Amino acid sequence: MLRNTRLLVFGSLFALAVAGGTLGFSLAEGHSLFDSFYFTIVTMSTVGYGDIHPWTPEGKLIAVALIFAGVGT
User: Which long-range contacts (CB under 8 A, 24 or more apart) does 55-58 make?
Assistant: First the structure.
């Protein structure tokens, strides 16, 4: 039971981070939702291709938060 609860908690945190990152990048950087989703996944997985990167201070803060969220989950 405890294992399922942990999986649910971390899965929910991961989904929340993906949704927040996607929306945040879309609003802060002006990217489409698909590009923002792609950038969120690339950032959270710490791959960082470099094809899309944040330009605004808000976008950079979102990227830093997502790196910690990706490593943490």
Answer: 55/29, 56/28, 56/29, 58/24, 58/28
C-alpha–C-alpha distance, residues 60 and 65, integer Å: 9
Residue 73 contacts residue 15 (beta carbons within 8 Å): no
Is the whole-model pTM more than 0.85? no
* Residue 62 burial by Cβ neighbours in a 10 Å radius (0-12, 13-18, 19+): buried
One-letter amino acid identity for 60? K
pLDDT surpassing 90 at residue 43: no
